[in-house]
Design brief:
Helix content: 25-40%
Shape: elongated
Number of strands: 31
Structural class: alpha+beta
Radius of gyration: 43 Å
Strand content: 15-25%
Strand order of the largest sheet: 3-4-5-6-7-8
Largest sheet: 6 strands, mixed
Distance between the termini: 203 Å
Length: 888
């Protein structure tokens, strides 16, 4: 009982004790927890600091790595030429030679476009030059030495007294035969088509334009480093404040330059980091003034027509028709305002928006104290005026498209990733390209007057080097802005008679002589089983005579050409066309007349075999492709494939025949245009007008026609030959090495004087003779017997004493004459060289009477038989037996 009571009494005390101890325990626990949290915070701070330090170290290490990496790239570009090692498409470097048609002013313009500046220049340019005393002195950098083996400190170009031709070249006091300039950029991007651009130094940028660009883009450019932290903060504030009118960007001019020239246009934090590293590298190697000048040269300023505007100099010309030094304050502000968004602020398409942006730039200039309030007010009140675009097309836009497609085809596996950084060095000669464009434009202007504006013909021109296949010039149409169809590479049309040399080449390869006779008369050709083909000459006329195959090509006779194709074999002709790079035609007789469509580029490629001794060279527009950034692929030595498709003797005989086309054939209108230059070629007339011709070192093909394939109504000699003649003549004047006094003759080819009427060796009495190139197997083995005294009987009778003569028959011998349809009248066919028409009379004492030759028309004549062959006939009259005077 007691224990129970004790237990019952102890319960309340124990419970109270437990409560006291519980409260004390909890208080003690809270007192212990406070130091733990106090100790945890410093730990967190230390951990955050360590992470921050690690991040800073990692960032610094990454920045240092990028700095070293990009330092190598920038140093390499500066060493190899900053302007010629950037991404883009480049023309072939110009080569200066004595004898070139060039003025000092024109050379200065060429130098500026090739990256040389007048006056002092740093190593970012390809060099500098100066003009003094009618000469031009060039001071190239090592990277701009071009293909020359030596690097010259100074090159002096002297001109003739009239100043229109280079007389001498001097390199460091030594006489030079040639000097190669740095290549000129055609475009920075394949999608852009630029007009002529010239390098611009800092001193050439007008002060007002400098201030406009700095005020709106980077007003502290000459004060801050490669990255402007204050500018970044100011930009963030301006874009966060809706009430602030002048929004600012955070990138410096240096950052914008490296973004445009080194990096891809992606907008990521990674690219920004690389941009900062590159800007640091650039500013440690290039002066601020040169960076600003490069920026003014490289900045993209929109599009007008087909021209992509790059640089402030080109913008001044394209939009305002002025030089930089002539720009007003308002025009300078307009150009500066376009930098942020060229499409939005284009003055030609959006003048009102452009005006508002221009006034914003003027306000920024006023804020910075660059102009006065009066100047700002006057400039803001000016309307936006844009000059008419004088030139609607860029430089070689069709060629740039052709190059881009060629590079994509040859680098199909890698061009997609590296296209932004490729440097493509092409074969285009800018001087020849300019001549080609002017020749085409001039002829099209004349033809538009012929058609009186009712129709607008198009034209295409391709010029190749037959030794290398290099595409020297290409015109794909009258205006790239109106039509991007490249008619030189993509428009297939019937070539007409320019295909005929393929037929005659196949005939020569099969052993058929160019002196083989063929009837120039209506003829029906059978093919397949029931097929019949009846060709007609252009104009429908026939000479109704036998002519040589050579004459058939020179005079472009259709029936003779088809006959040559049938004798050779249609399949052989078609096979040769395929080997020459032309579309292989179907084996029908009409193939001989060029009915299978081809492009001008394909025709030009085929003609390289005729000009190059039978060696066909494929067209090649690219010399090499290099990678401008890491990871971009590169191709070096893109050589055009070649193949020997004709015997050298065949090519030379054909060239000799085509030379006669210009001397006295269908292209004789061009005969007097060339002095000291061997030329050969062939006209072609289908629905269009063609001419394909060449010198020993230049092949050029011209096409003129309508895009809808309507009949042009003009021959190739009228439509295309004038373009070809002007281009080739001026090309040889600019580059004499493209000409040549004679084509290279193989040792197996000889020359023979033949009668063009019979195709036989010309006799002394033949009224016409022609010197023809022949392989030994084709040289005739006997002389012509149609003209003069074939057996020497008349000469023998004139020299024989009268006592030897025995009058056994008395006859009246008629005059022997032949009617020639080409001569103005009948001519003596069997007369000696002397013009006497009768033999000398015998002395009266001899008692003998010599026969008297009297000329009677048509007594001896040529008649055409039913088989189309000519035969010699006469009307010889003999006295009958028993008649008066008859003696036995």
């Amino acid at each position: 009982m007691r224990s129970e009571l004790q237990t019952a009494g102890a319960g309340p005390r124990a419970q109270a004790a437990r409560q006291r101890f519980g409260r004390a325990g909890r208080a003690s626990l809270y007192r212990d927890a406070e130091p733990r949290s106090a100790r945890l915070l410093p730990r967190l701070l230390r951990l955050s600091g360590a992470l921050l330090i690690a991040a800073v170290v990692a960032t610094a290490a990454a920045f240092a790595y990028l700095y070293i990496h990009y330092s190598k790239i920038v140093d390499q570009r500066l060493a190899s030429g900053y302007l010629t090692s950037r991404a883009g498409i480049y023309a072939a470097p110009r080569v200066l030679r004595p004898g070139q048609s060039l003025t000092a002013e024109r050379l200065a313009e060429i130098l500026r476009r090739a990256g040389y500046v007048e006056g002092e220049a740093s190593r970012v340019w390809n060099g500098r030059f100066r003009m003094e005393g009618g000469a031009v002195e060039i001071f190239p950098t090592e990277s701009a030495a071009g293909a020359d083996a030596r690097v010259f400190a100074a090159v002096r170009v002297e001109f003739e007294r009239r100043g229109a031709q280079v007389s001498r070249l001097w390199g460091d006091g030594e006489r030079l035969e040639h000097f190669t300039l740095a290549p000129e950029a055609l475009t920075v991007e394949a999608g852009e088509k630029n007009a002529d651009r010239a390098a611009l130094s800092y001193a050439e940028v007008p002060v007002v334009l400098r201030r406009a660009i700095l005020s709106i883009e980077d007003r502290r450019f000459f004060e801050h480093g490669p990255v402007d932290l204050r500018g970044i903060a100011r930009a963030a504030f301006s874009w966060g404040d809706e009430a602030q009118e002048l929004k600012q960007g955070g990138s410096t001019i240096t950052q914008q330059l490296v973004k445009n020239t080194y990096l891809t246009p992606e907008r990521t934090l990674r690219r920004k980091f690389r941009e900062a590293a590159l800007a640091t590298v650039i500013e440690r190697r290039i002066r601020k003034e040169d960076i600003f000048a490069l920026y003014c040269n490289e900045i993209y300023l929109g599009q007008r027509g087909s021209i992509a505007v790059r640089g402030v100099r080109q913008a001044a010309r394209v939009f305002f028709g002025k030089e930089l030094k002539d720009l007003s304050l308002a025009e300078s502000a307009t150009i500066a305002g376009m930098i942020q968004s060229p499409g939005r602020y284009a003055p030609d398409r959006r003048p009102e928006v452009s005006r508002l942006r221009r006034n914003t730039v003027i306000a920024a200039m006023l804020r910075d104290g660059a102009i006065t309030a009066e100047e700002a007010r006057a400039a803001c009140e000016e309307p936006v005026r844009v000059a008419p675009l004088e030139r609607a097309d860029a430089t070689a836009p069709y060629f740039i498209d052709y190059v881009s497609r060629t590079v994509e085809e040859r680098m199909a596996d890698s061009v997609e990733d590296g296209a932004q950084g490729l440097r493509v060095y092409t074969t285009l000669d800018l001087d020849l390209q300019r001549v080609a464009e002017e020749a085409v434009a001039g002829q099209l202007g004349r033809l538009e007057k012929v058609f009186k504006g009712r129709r607008r013909p198009q034209a295409a021109l391709v010029a190749l080097d037959p030794r290398t296949g290099h595409v020297l010039a290409m015109v794909g149409g009258s205006s790239y802005a109106e039509s991007q169809l490249n008619r030189a590479t993509d428009a297939r049309r019937q070539p007409g008679s320019v295909f005929k040399p393929v037929v005659y080449a196949a005939a020569l390869e099969q052993g058929i002589s160019p002196l083989t006779l063929s009837a120039d008369a209506p003829k029906e050709f059978a093919y397949d089983v029931r097929g019949r083909y009846r060709p007609a000459n252009y104009g429908g006329g026939f000479s109704m005579r036998d002519v040589t195959l050579r004459a058939g090509l020179v005079r472009s006779l259709n029936v003779v050409t088809v006959d040559a194709a049938m004798r050779t074999g249609l399949t052989r002709v078609a096979a040769l066309a395929g080997r020459l790079g032309l579309p292989k035609p179907q084996a029908y007789p009409s193939l001989a007349l060029g009915t299978t469509e081809a492009t001008p580029l394909e025709v030009a490629t085929a003609y390289t075999a005729f000009a190059g001794g039978g060696r066909l060279v494929k067209a090649n527009p690219v010399v090499r492709v290099e990678g401008a950034v890491e990871g971009a692929s590169a191709l070096d030595g893109l050589m055009a494939p070649s193949d020997q498709v004709l015997k050298p003797a065949t090519a030379y005989m054909l060239t000799d025949m085509l030379s006669a086309v210009i001397d006295r054939g269908t292209a004789r209108a061009a005969r007097g245009a060339f002095k000291g230059t061997a030329v050969a070629g062939k006209t072609g007339t289908s629905r269009d007008g063609w001419f394909a011709g060449y010198t020993p070192n230049l092949v050029c093909v011209v096409w003129v026609g309508f895009d809808d394939n309507e009949e042009l109504g003009l021959t190739g000699a009228d439509a295309s030959l004038p373009v070809w003649t002007e281009f080739v003549r001026r090309a040889v004047e600019l580059r004499p090495e493209l000409g040549g006094e004679a084509f290279s003759r193989p040792a197996s080819v000889t020359f023979a004087d033949v009668d063009p009427e019979t195709g036989l060796i010309a006799a002394p009495s033949c009224p016409q003779r022609e010197r023809v190139a022949l392989a030994p197997a084709y040289v005739p083995d006997h002389e012509c017997s149609l003209h003069g005294d074939p057996w020497g009987l008349l000469a023998l009778a004139a020299s024989t004493p009268s006592s030897v003569l025995t009058p056994t028959v008395r006859t009246e011998a008629p005059a022997l004459s032949v009617r020639d349809s080409n001569a103005p009248g009948a001519r003596a066919a069997y007369a000696p060289h002397a013009e006497a028409s009768a033999l000398p009379a015998a002395p009266a004492t001899s008692g003998y009477e010599l026969p008297v030759l009297r000329e009677e028309p048509r007594a001896t004549r040529v008649e055409l038989g039913r088989d189309g062959r000519r035969r010699l006939t006469n009307d010889l009259r003999v006295a009958p037996k028993g008649a008066d005077g008859w003696q036995e």
